[in-house]
Design goal:
about 220 residues, alpha/beta, 6-stranded mixed β-sheet, about 20% strand, globular
Length: about 220
């Protein structure tokens, strides 16, 4: 079990439809998750790419990062996230792996602590998502940030932030608008989530290992 100042979040979003938040709190196990069936349905309902393209998923570790966290705490937390993802993907074929930060204001992160029972030393909320391996590298960061932002927006809509206003800054590529709907359309147009069937199955295995209690 990793003793990390990070909190793990689980979920899959491929068409801007999150399943209801399910909060689980137990000693040594603090977690915010989304119902996996809805995420799986959204994923598998998309048209599949042919296996002629690289079938391997490209993994992004997303983190809603407390902007007031000290660099040493962030480095340690990110290191644990990388270790967790590498352990989860052991034996699986992936096209690559990178971590994408979405900094959030300290009051917002503080507002998450009570409803999610976030430990006092946590500096980030982590998750792992798949992207299509053919997605251009310059679009991976905005894809990861958008997925992380949607998690935050969902929690805000469900009243988990106690009315604390959320204002996140997404680092959009040149020429893109900052409107979430526009970003979503750009990502769909770039095929960010057009995974092959084998890529989907690989991600499911990795996500199951990532969410396993022994990995936390």
């Amino acid at each position: 079990m990793l003793n990390s100042p990070g909190l793990w979040m689980g979920g899959v979003n491929f068409d801007s439809h999150w399943a209801p938040v399910e909060v689980t709190t137990a000693p040594g196990d603090v977690k915010a998750t989304w119902t996996t069936q809805a995420g799986t349905n959204a994923l598998t309902s998309r048209p599949l790419m042919t296996e002629e393209r690289d079938p391997r998923p490209y993994l992004v570790i997303t983190v809603l990062l407390d902007s007031s966290a000290r660099p040493a705490e962030v480095s340690r937390s990110h290191g644990d996230a990388y270790e967790r993802s590498l352990n989860a993907s052991q034996g699986q074929e992936i096209a690559g792996l990178e971590l994408v930060e979405l900094p959030i204001a300290a009051p917002v992160f503080k507002a998450l602590r009570q409803p999610l029972a976030v430990p006092g030393d946590a500096v980030g909320l982590y998750d792992v998502f798949p992207l299509a391996s053919h997605l251009k590298p310059e679009y991976r960061k905005i894809a990861g940030q958008f997925l992380a932002a949607e998690a935050l927006w969902t929690m805000e809509e469900q009243g988990l932030l106690g009315g604390v206003p959320v204002n996140v800054k997404l680092e959009v590529p040149k020429g893109w608008q900052t409107d979430p709907k526009e970003i979503h359309q750009h990502l769909i147009g770039e095929g960010a989530l057009d995974l092959t069937e084998s890529g989907i199955e690989t991600y499911k295995v990795i996500k199951t290992a990532w969410d396993a209690p022994a990995a936390r």
